[in-house]
Amino acid sequence: MAGHEGYLTIGLHEDGTPGEIFIKMSKEGSTLSGLIQGFCRAFSIALQYGLPLQDAVDRFRGMRFEPMGATNNPDIPEAMSILDYVARFLELTFIKEVAQAKQRQTLTN
Question: Which pTM value belongs to this model?
Answer without folding.
Answer: 0.85
